[in-house]
Each structure stands twice: as structure tokens, then as C-alpha cells.
Design goal:
Blueprint (H helix, E strand, L loop, with lengths): L11 H7 L11 H5 L5 H5 L12 H5 L3 H32 L17 E4 L5 E5 L15 H10 L11 H14 L9 H12 L10 H17 L2 H11 L9 H9 L8 H9 L13 H17 L6 H10 L12 H8 L2 H5 L6 E5 L3 H18 L7 E7 L5 E5 L24 H10 L7 E3 L21 E3 H7 L2 H11 L1 H11 L20 H12 L10 E6 L4 E4 L11 H17 L12 E7 L3 E7 L4 E7 L15 H16 L36 H4 L4 H13 L1
Parallel strand pairs: 1-3
Antiparallel strand pairs: 1-2, 3-8, 4-5, 4-12, 6-7, 8-9, 10-11, 11-12
Helix pairs in contact: 6-12, 6-13, 8-9, 8-10, 12-13, 17-24, 18-20, 18-21, 18-23, 19-23
């Protein structure tokens, strides 16, 4: 059988099949390009086989399945990228349309700074926003910005405004700790946050998502617009370092009293450590915490390679301690009091000021020593937690002020703000009213129990009634029943008038209880009123500011002593001073003896307040102790204890350094009827034979008392 010849032509069926027109590919479609059809088969790279398709292994290997998958993935990610980019652009536009002009970063907008000085030029405190002139980065030693970067932003020179690595690290650290212990914001972000707050966009406590997004957008924009050196310069000049200081120069002057270019490595570490919590790590109010924080900064600087040895830095700190620098720690209460008075003296102001005050650093230091010593010695024993002290000259110049035991814990000034009942320290006004009503220090008055309408004031437990005693002895021993009878004789309105005349400005009650000190007063106004006894009977208004000037040296205010106004006649003044001298020499104020002629009066209020106000010819001092919540101290916590003893501890070194000149008693001939004519050769007060109205010695019934009060009110 002959071999079949090869086919030279295709069959009709095959020819017909091959002659069919090929299906044309679809034209390009953006919709299909950006919205590809995704199926499981497409993801696996599989294609459906036609009925007549041959399964040829070689042709399957040559298929373009892999190329198709890559192409489709490329289109998918390109699509997502385009949408994300569009959404991102819209987001940026939405959150950045109201961002402030960044050119304002080079302009300082602030409240004027105020520097408070003692009378010798010592800086007591600084207030306001203390920006200084812009300090350039190249003017500072390298360790100043390095200290900030080591603790705040170690990758400052490598990120684009947002530190992604730092954010991841902070998130992981916080996750492990279970709370926020680390932040991831950069110096640029902090500058952006500071700028937004200063421009009034957000409050300091705002933590909204919008603020965070705007902060990031602004940080990236700052990195695009400014160099790293410019950003660091702006940051160093604008960031808040506590105590009213903005910028590295102000902080350096505030805490170390020198320009920032002279900061040591340790000092730079202390200032850098303030950024976390300025009040908590302040070197002035919390030196221990400040040092601990500085050690953290130094450790970070060492790890970053900025310093070689921490021990070397600490040795340098020890070698550079300035032992001559004066630091008045407790002067903050006085500084606050003075600062609040500035607008009343010069009106509103928009420039930096220097305020020279009456404060005496030596006296202020002695006041701090005395109050601290007595509170440590007796505070727990007598269950008292607070103490205040005011010292002023007889003309009202405040030389020292203690407003509480710890300014860092409470800025409430118990010398100028606390209204407390003065108790028996109010009695000098009652006795002066009695003298002005015709009584004398030798007038004999019953010390027997006194009762009116259920009110029966008691004497101190150690006092035993003797029937009647002189007015002078009654003040010396602080006999309440005698004081009450004097008040009944002169009337409450008369006592209130005397107190107001001498300078008590608080609201005064006028019923009979006024005589035992139920009217609430501040320590400052009570001391000012007593100052009239030391100022020859002239009215005294306390003051703390001598001069206010601007940085150019122009004087905006200068204190002028007012013309004297006589509020106590010399005759009565002499009598009152000798009676109050007797209080210290042999009465309730014996604990206040100083070795110099001193007068004064103790006071207490049901164990809730204890007072002593005393004076010499050159100084008037008041001391108060008690509890802010009015909790009682131990029983019989009188003014003769902690207050009188604190007074003596303060006055002894002060008077030794500045001995009083002259006498509290007016010499014979200056005033008619002075006590010198009534005293014997030893200066002992003799009992007077002057008769007092029978009403004072006899029991007083309600009707008689009411009639007496009406007569007193009509005078």
C-alpha cells in the first residue's frame, strides 16, 4: 500500500475556520483602567479554557499570566495612590486654610516683663513674659542646643519636621508601660504648637485632633521654609521655661543671673530639664527635683556623644558655685503683693519695668529664719500649720513679709489676704477709745464676771478676779471682763470709729463683741494701724514700692511721704504706749522681750488664731499663726507663745544691727498730763484715784446697758 502523500492544502473545514475574522481588542478605557475587574481566578492567574483549546504544556509556559498580574497590581496601587493623594491634598487644604502667617515667628508678642528689686538692688522676682532680645544660635555655646536636643529631639537634624522613628518608639514605650510616659513630638512640632497657642488658635490645654493635624502640617511647612538653624533659633527664643520666662536668655538671667552665652553644661542641662514641667523642676523652688532632672539630661547628652564625662560636668558645677549671690527665697509673697499694685500707681503699661521696693534683704532673711525655726520647733506641738509676718518702719515702709510656710505649695498670702479675728490684739483700740472718753490708765474697773443677754465673756483660765484693777493692769493681763466694761462705757460705734481712724479698712461690726476682736482683719492692716503708736500718733499707710522706671531709666513713679495726719493726740499716745510697754515687761507679752524698749499686745481667738503685734521706735512687726481651714490649735494657744517668741527671735538680730533711737514715751512738756507726772522714781505706774462712773463698777442690767449704748451711739 502506497504511502499517503502529505497534505498540501488545508481542508475546507479548516479553511473556513481560519478564514473567520479575528476579534479586535477593545480601545483603552480609563474606567476599566482604574476599576479593574478582580476575581479569584484573576488573582491566581487562571484563564478559562475554550472547548476546543488544546492543552499544550509548552504554550502554557509561554503565557503572559504573570505579566498580567503585575500589571493589574500596578494599576491597583496606582489607583489607591491617586485617591490617597487627592484625599491628602484636600485634607491639607482643609486644615491649613486658617493657619497664621509664619513670618510672625520672628516677632515677639508678649506682656511686658517686670523685675522686682529689693531696696539694695537685689532681684526679688520677675513677672510678665520675660522675652529678651533674640539670641542667635551661633552666639551660644554648643552644649546649650545639644542639651535641648538630647532630651527633646535627638534626630533634629535628620527628620523633616515629624520624627517617624521617634513616634514608633514612643508608641511602643507607652504600650509597654500601659500609660503615656514618652512623647514623640519634635522641636519643630513644639515650635509649631507654641506658635499656634501664641496666635490664639488654641489654648494650652487643647488636645483636639484638629490641633494635632495643624501642628504637623505647620511643622512640615516650617522645615520647608526655614533652615534647621533658624528653627532652633526660633525655638530657643520662644519656648517657656517657667517663672514668667520665655526664651533661653530670659531663663538664664532668671535662674543664673547671667547671659545665656555664659551658661555651663550643667546649667544648660537644668534649663533643658525645665521643659517637661517648669514649676516642678524649677531650680529655685524645687532644687532637688531640678538636680535629678538635670542628671537625666546629662545622661542623655552622654549617650548622644555630646559630653565625655558626667562626673567632669558635676565637678565643674561645684567649682563654679557663686557663694556671694543672694537668693531671697521667701520674698515671693512680697513680690506678688507689689506686682499687683503697679497698675494702680502708673495705670496700664506696655513696656518692661524695673520696680525698686522697700524690702530689706537682711530683715527678710531674718524673718524667714525666725518663722521657720519656730514652726519646726512648736508647729506640731501646738497643731498649727501656717504662719505670717509683716515688718515695717513707723512710716509704713514694709521691710519684710512672710505670707505662709511654703510659697511653692500655696501662693495665698496670709499677711495681706487672710481675714482673721484678731482677738485681744484689737484691745488697744478699745482702750484708746476709753482714754478719749475721759478714762485714764489708773481708773479702777471691776474685773468680776460680766453678763449681758446670755453673753458672758470669760477671762483667761489663769486669771483670778480680785474685785477691781486699774485700766493699765487690765491691758497688761488682757482681762476680758474689764475690756467689756470699757466697751459698754464708750459704745461699739466709738471703738469702730477709733479703729477706722487708725487704718482698719475691713468691714467693722459695732456691737459689744467688737471689744474682744471679732472684727476680721488682715495682718498687714493691723500692723499698719499699730504703726500709728510708733509714728508719734500720725496716720500710717503701708507701702512697698519706692520707684518704678522703664528699661531706659525713665522714672514713672516715685514714692512721696504724705503730709502727717495726727490720728492720736499726744497725751493719749503716751498713755497707750506705756501701757503696751507694760504688756511686754510683765504681762501676756513677756515672750516678746528683745532687750530693747518694746511695746505691743498679744491676741487669740478661741485657739483658731494667735497674734502678737509689737513695735519699737524704728520698727513695727506683727506675727500670726493658725490653720487655713480654721481648725483649732491646742487649747490655750495664745499670742504669747509662737507669735511672741517668733517676734523676739526676729527682732533681736535686727535691732542689734539697727538699734532703735529715741523713746516711745513723749518727754515731759511735749504733751499735757503725760504719764511721767503719775509715776514714781522707778517709773512704776501708780494707781489713780480718779473715780469712774458707778455704772462701770456696779452690775449692769439689760435696760441700763441698752440706754448706755443709745447714749454712746448719739455722741
Amino acid at each position: 500500500m502506497a504511502d499517503r502523500p502529505p497534505k498540501l492544502y488545508a481542508s475546507d473545514k479548516t479553511r473556513a475556520k481560519s478564514s473567520k475574522p479575528k476579534k479586535q481588542k477593545n480601545s483603552f478605557s480609563w474606567l476599566k483602567f482604574f476599576m479593574p475587574k478582580i476575581s479569584l481566578g484573576w488573582l491566581l492567574g487562571k484563564k478559562k479554557k475554550s472547548a476546543g483549546q488544546k492543552t499544550d504544556k509548552k504554550s502554557k509556559k509561554k503565557s503572559s499570566g504573570k505579566t498580567t498580574i503585575r500589571w493589574m497590581l500596578f494599576k491597583l496601587f496606582l489607583t489607591l495612590g491617586v485617591w490617597i493623594m487627592c484625599f491628602g491634598m484636600l485634607t491639607v487644604m482643609w486644615f491649613s486654610y486658617d493657619l497664621p502667617d509664619t513670618d510672625q515667628l520672628m516677632v515677639s508678642s508678649r506682656k511686658p516683663g517686670v523685675t522686682i528689686q529689693a531696696r539694695d538692688g537685689t532681684v526679688i522676682g520677675t513677672y510678665g513674659d520675660l522675652f529678651e532680645e533674640m539670641v542667635k544660635l551661633n552666639e551660644l555655646p554648643a552644649h546649650v542646643p545639644q542639651a535641648l536636643m538630647s532630651i527633646e529631639d535627638r534626630r533634629f537634624y535628620s527628620h523633616f519636621g515629624v520624627d517617624v522613628i521617634g513616634l514608633v518608639r514612643a508608641a511602643y514605650t507607652n504600650y509597654k508601660a500601659g500609660r503615656v510616659v514618652q512623647g514623640g513630638s519634635t522641636v519643630t512640632q513644639q515650635l509649631a504648637k507654641n506658635f499656634l497657642q501664641n496666635q490664639g488658635k488654641y489654648s494650652i490645654h487643647d488636645k483636639s485632633l484638629r490641633r494635632k493635624i495643624q501642628e504637623v502640617i505647620l511643622a512640615v511647612w516650617l522645615e520647608m521654609k526655614f533652615t534647621k538653624e533658624q528653627i532652633m533659633t526660633m525655638y530657643l527664643n520662644r519656648v517657656y521655661f517657667g517663672a514668667g520666662t520665655f526664651g533661653i536668655e530670659a531663663a538664664s538671667q532668671k535662674y543664673y543671673h547671667k547671659p545665656a552665652k555664659y551658661l555651663t553644661v550643667y546649667e544648660a542641662a537644668v534649663i533643658a530639664g525645665l521643659l517637661k514641667a517648669p514649676s516642678r523642676y524649677s531650680p529655685t523652688s524645687n532644687p532637688t527635683r531640678s538636680h535629678e532632672r538635670a542628671m537625666v539630661v546629662l545622661t542623655q547628652m552622654h549617650e548622644a556623644g555630646y559630653i565625655r564625662s558626667i562626673d567632669q560636668v558635676l565637678q565643674q558645677k561645684h567649682d563654679e558655685i557663686d557663694e556671694d549671690r543672694i537668693d531671697i527665697k521667701s520674698g515671693n509673697f512680697f513680690g506678688d503683693w507689689v506686682y499687683d499694685q503697679i497698675p494702680n500707681l502708673i495705670g496700664s503699661y506696655d513696656e518692661d519695668l524695673v520696680v525698686v521696693t522697700t524690702l530689706d534683704p537682711f530683715m527678710q532673711n531674718q524673718a524667714e529664719i525666725a518663722t521657720q525655726a519656730k514652726m519646726e520647733e512648736l508647729g506640731k506641738k501646738y497643731k498649727t500649720s501656717e504662719i505670717s509676718l509683716v515688718a515695717m518702719t513707723p512710716n509704713g515702709a514694709v521691710r519684710a513679709m512672710i505670707g505662709g510656710t511654703h510659697y511653692g505649695k500655696s501662693q495665698y498670702n496670709r499677711a495681706t489676704q487672710a481675714l482673721r479675728q484678731p482677738g485681744s490684739s484689737f484691745k488697744p483700740f478699745v482702750y484708746l477709745a476709753g482714754l478719749e472718753s475721759g478714762m485714764t490708765p489708773y481708773t479702777m474697773i471691776s474685773d468680776e464676771p460680766f453678763s449681758l443677754g446670755g453673753w458672758s465673756p470669760k477671762n483667761f483660765r489663769t486669771y483670778h478676779a480680785v474685785g477691781e484693777i486699774s485700766m493699765a493692769d487690765a491691758l497688761k493681763k488682757s482681762v476680758n471682763t474689764v475690756t467689756t466694761r470699757i466697751a459698754a462705757h464708750v459704745g461699739g460705734p466709738k471703738i469702730a470709729s477709733v479703729a477706722r481712724r487708725l487704718g482698719i479698712t475691713s468691714e467693722i461690726i459695732t456691737d459689744l463683741s467688737i471689744c474682744l476682736g471679732t472684727t476680721e482683719v488682715t495682718l498687714l492692716e493691723l500692723v499698719s494701724a499699730y504703726a500709728s503708736f510708733a509714728n508719734k500718733g500720725n496716720f500710717v499707710s503701708s507701702y512697698g514700692i519706692l520707684e518704678i522706671r522703664n528699661k531706659k531709666g525713665d522714672i514713672l513713679y516715685q514714692h512721696q511721704d504724705p503730709d502727717p495726719i495726727q490720728v492720736i493726740k499726744l497725751h493719749y499716745l503716751n498713755q497707750m504706749n506705756q501701757m503696751m510697754i507694760a504688756v511686754i515687761e510683765g504681762g501676756t507679752g513677756r515672750g516678746a522681750k528683745t532687750g530693747f524698749p518694746t511695746a505691743g499686745k498679744t491676741g487669740s481667738n478661741a485657739d483658731k488664731d494667735a497674734w502678737f503685734i509689737g513695735f519699737t521706735t524704728n520698727l513695727v512687726v506683727g506675727v500670726w499663726t493658725g490653720n487655713d481651714n480654721n481648725a483649732p490649735m491646742i487649747k490655750n494657744s495664745t499670742g504669747g507663745r509662737i507669735p511672741a517668741q517668733t517676734f523676739a527671735l526676729f527682732m533681736k538680730p535686727v535691732l542689734t544691727a539697727n538699734p532703735p533711737v529715741g523713746s516711745l514715751l513723749i518727754s515731759e512738756g511735749q504733751a499735757a498730763g503725760s504719764l511721767s507726772s503719775e509715776a514714781d522714781d522707778d517709773g512704776i505706774i501708780q494707781e489713780s484715784k480718779v473715780e469712774i462712773t458707778p455704772t462701770m463698777n456696779d452690775p449692769i442690767d439689760s435696760a441700763s446697758f441698752d440706754k448706755m449704748m443709745e447714749e454712746a451711739a448719739s455722741e
